[in-house]
């Protein structure tokens, strides 16, 4: 294990201390394991709360701030946050206007967020839940009934966060997040596995020269184990899988070319070039492109392509100001 | 080689195409191999040009934009850009106000930037050169006479870029970049090597369980090969080396906790927590902290800590608006 950690059991706590030290704009509670906007609760605003296993940074804590999430509940590595933890995040930011829970579709997350929402209801905080399930690779997987939630989470958090910042009511904010999920698809490819610190061995085996098409963000199996291809082949396979599920021709797209954690930025830009070529060859247009490691799987090498079919409204909300540790623009 | 590329010979060209596709704010010339602000030349403004081998992304092309660089000249992977390439970047952005060349101290870079500056002078474009040499690990190295230039390059590009945006004259912009370099120090640690695509094998060998203290950003040897330590031990060794060269007690610091390309963000935040502890224990304060993979070495695992002793003026310029692909705030 070539990891920059102190001890496997301290990974999340130590990372939260670093997050707190680096970002005065966040309020990190090491006991409750919550990360909250320093100015929360924002009076009259619908609050957005997300969370999930750690190991996908900057998702979600790096997206807490103006124009995006109000709070995040980071679980242990690749492990759902507890209901208590999600409840604490929800109560720290939720007021009269209510709270939207943005939940990636994994069994543990859906259960624990549901329980937290019921507990919040007991405290008279209204919660609307939005489930993210954008990964076209497989139906049902190691930790999932139905499709997995991956890259579209970023789209939903950004766009719903912008609408909440405009003062929209609970149903509208939840509604736009659902709309984003319905209009988004993702597909990921792994060139190497990753190792959960507490486990000490790779989540799966991948021979040198092989790749996993349709891999999940925890290294869950995808569709096929094949000979490693070029960046162009990897991108073409990813976009063909997405296109087969949601035709892209004629669409204007918000695109995320996402590094999985161990793939350097220069390679992510090579993938971005291939994405641009594929779209041009299939009558689709990337109206916005984000390139970087935003939804990661520890040190896994590989990339994921996510697209969202834009509308003028969604694009306006995408472009709206955001100020978080990992995503900042326009303010 | 688990790389997301098309062919080793196409790495830089393909990455530049992706950069162009993702960022309409940049003008990428694939022939001249230059990356230029789309609004360049900015009339009356001192222009900042940097460059160097590719493989360190987002350095430098990802720092081209408002408030930072006017142009970058990316060479082949770990290979200096040619004088022609640097000249093209210089002439694309340089006007009456002159140009500052920000040059990391490597033999090839210093030679080729010098030649480009002479050629620019023939075209009546004034060039001031600033040499970055902040890495305290070693004096002289594989590609270097004197100290290597690493993380302080980001500080200098940001701060001098902000002063140029304010309309300061050539000597002042070059002067503040030199001041930043003098007040900055860096130290890096590798937990794994990296592989230059064209070479196809690791730049150096590192047994599992070993680390290289004081490694360079091309995998050049550092001070010592030792048993891999905890994040805290790695950070403590890095800051002790910096402190021995430039005492940190009582200082207010701008801090960069930099991932080397293959180390995930959660581990970089663990290192950031350790940096915060070390500084608190030694009477120094991080007034600003940036955490992320900003000055990378392909897929090398490890981290680098860079610090700049702030002054009120440097801090004001650090906080000034910036709008580049990799660094954005405040506008």
Automatic annotation (TrEMBL), chains A, B:
Gene3D superfamilies reported in the protein's UniProt record: Dihydroxyacetone kinase, domain 1, Dihydroxyacetone kinase, domain 2
Any one cellular-component term (Gene Ontology): cytosol
One of the GO BP terms on file: glycerol catabolic process
Domain DhaK: 7-329
Record-level Gene Ontology MF annotations: glycerone kinase activity; phosphoenolpyruvate-glycerone phosphotransferase activity
Annotated keywords: Kinase, Transferase
Alphabetized InterPro entries for the sequence: DhaK_1, DhaK_dom, Dihydroxyacetone_Kinase
EC class name: transferase
EC number(s) from the headed UniProt entry: 2.7.1.121
Any Pfam family hit: Dak1
Highest taxon, organism lineage: Bacteria
Name of protein: Dihydroxyacetone kinase subunit DhaK
Annotated source species: Actinomadura logoneensis
Lineage: Bacteria, Bacillati, Actinomycetota, Actinomycetes, Streptosporangiales
